[in-house]
Design a protein that fits this description.
The structure is a single chain. With 492 residues, the protein is mainly alpha-helical. Helix content is 67%, strand content 4%. Helix 8 runs parallel beside helix 16 and helix 10 packs antiparallel against helix 11. The relative contact order is 0.13.
């Protein structure tokens, strides 16, 4: 077997172990990130896998690409109503809160690890953001639901605070490298990164929606290629112009998620799968970069930094920044649900690539912090939410739109297409007013260049193409409603 063939086999085995391991950890209530990291460490030079890997540049490149797709999937699936509901508090936590967390954690790092001030602040900046994917993978696997407002705050904050952590990390590294010129440089850097990131994200989001709805591709499989292209261009072009590519990707996904476009649900599902793939690859590669023997050397002081982050920095930020109206129980839950995950480990490669002093120590401590956070906080989220009595009603599991056609075919009900004729019984009427038989499902309404997901209040118009699922009786009734009116026969 050639080395290339062996590499393919090893990659396939590691991916399979990651998928199967995530199933096992979900039953234990442990975030899947743990098994991905452990698999990477076991496959490394100090594990049974024996793979020699010491390339932080490659690890950083893989991490940045993976983060872009993970954030895109998160933004695509974020409900705009949640953003509006908790946008203010979430924005404050994702900006001021991240900066305050970085400072407090940095002070603990200076005290316990003996790092100089700049290196301590760099470590604090790296671990200052939380991980939404880790939090909600635990909630879903254990069947736990929080109060709607509380869950929305955690989701929006965790999904939007990564760009701030990236900016702080890059800014401190620039200071250590002598690239900055003081306060005004930092302010200009922040404004340029955030401003360009937001503007370019909105631009790419709207262009992507327009392209998806206007460009009629001959093959459905090419639509995911368009959205993958949007991710790559959003990050690449924005970074090239000097903005935050990570922020641009997330904002573009938010714009897409708030818009109607063709094949929306199937594209959301596709990028969910891509995000999982990227997590396995990213954490596997980052796990390869770790030498477990070096983690032991920093274990005790790193535990002290973890304690400072969990029990001092995060609670101080949450209790100090959340506005009135949030109860003590809710504040305690937000304080505890502050898991560190993918972003800190990726950011920990930045000092390695830049050749910053103490970079190796920072990387090992960050890795230890992430492992401790997901193991301790991740496994205790269901118990904590129950003790604080902040649980809500879980949403009922319903088949996704893409599954309706599969379920209908299994039940012997093939989907049918029909067109609303001018003057028909369905023309100009709401779906709810048609008196459709039980079991009727109108999956999609195509109106010119628009694709609409129908609701009860959707008004059908002449020329609409409908995708309908139902038994033969239902299909017959729908065809009658969509057919042209019968013209009375003229008397001879």
């Amino acid at each position: 077997m050639s080395e290339f063939d062996l590499l393919i086999v090893v990659t396939g085995v590691l991916l399979l172990l990651g998928v199967l391991g995530s199933k096992a950890t979900s039953r234990l209530g442990v975030p899947a990130v743990v098994v991905f990291l452990v698999i990477g460490m076991l496959a490394g030079s100090e594990g049974p896998g024996g793979i020699a890997f010491d390339n932080p540049e490659l690890a950083q490149a893989v991490g940045v690409i993976a983060l872009s797709f993970i954030l895109f999937s998160g933004g695509l699936d974020t409900r705009w109503s949640d953003v509006r509901q908790v946008g203010g508090p979430a924005f404050v936590l994702a900006t001021v809160g991240v900066a305050a967390t970085a400072v407090i954690t940095g002070l603990f790092a200076m005290w316990l690890l003996g790092l100089p001030p700049a290196a301590g602040m760099l470590l604090g900046a790296i671990v200052s953001s939380t991980d939404a994917a880790a939090v909600f993978s635990v909630l879903r696997s254990r069947g736990v639901a929080l109060r709607p407002r509380l869950q929305a705050l955690l989701e929006v904050e965790s999904a939007s605070n990564d760009p701030m952590a990236v900016l702080l990390t890059v800014g401190v590294i620039a200071y250590l490298g002598g690239q900055s010129t003081g306060l005004w440089w930092a302010v200009g850097f922040f404004v340029r990164q955030m401003g360009l990131g937001a503007v370019m994200g909105i631009l790419f989001g709207r262009v992507t929606v327009w392209t998806l709805n206007r460009v009629r591709l001959d093959y459905e499989g090419l639509y995911p290629v368009l959205t993958v292209t949007a991710v790559l261009l959003s990050y690449g072009v924005t970074s090239w112009l000097g903005g935050s590519g990570i922020l641009a990707v997330y904002v573009a996904a938010l714009v897409l998620g708030a818009s109607d476009f063709v094949h929306k649900q199937s594209l959301i599902e596709y990028h969910d799968g891509v995000a999982w793939f990227m997590q396995i690859v990213m954490f596997g590669v980052l796990g390869l970069l770790v030498f477990p023997s070096e983690l032991v050397a920093v274990a005790w002081p790193a535990l002290g930094v973890v304690a400072g982050l969990m029990f001092v920095a995060r609670p101080v930020v949450v209790f100090g920044l959340l506005p009135r109206g949030w109860s003590v129980r809710e504040r305690l839950m937000v304080s505890w649900v502050g898991l560190r995950g993918s972003v800190p480990i990726v950011l920990a490669t930045f000092p390695l690539v830049a050749g910053v002093e103490h970079a190796s120590t920072i990387f090992n401590v960050v890795f230890f912090i992430v492992l401790t956070s997901v193991l301790l906080q991740g496994t205790s989220i269901p118990w904590t939410s129950a003790r604080l009595r902040v649980q809500g009603e879980p949403e009922p599991l319903r088949p996704r739109p893409s599954e309706y056609i599969r379920l209908a075919r299994q039940a012997g009900r093939a989907p049918e297409t029909m067109t609303v004729a001018p003057g028909s019984a369905a023309d100009g009427r709401q779906i709810v007013d048609l008196g459709l038989p039980e079991g009727t499902l109108i999956v999609l309404v195509t109106r010119g260049d628009q694709y609409l997901v129908p609701q009860g209040g959707t008004v059908l118009q002449a020329g609409d193409d409908l995708l309908v699922i139902g038994d033969p009786t239902v299909i017959g009734t729908m065809r009658d409603l969509c057919s042209p009116p019968v013209q009375p026969q003229q008397q001879a």
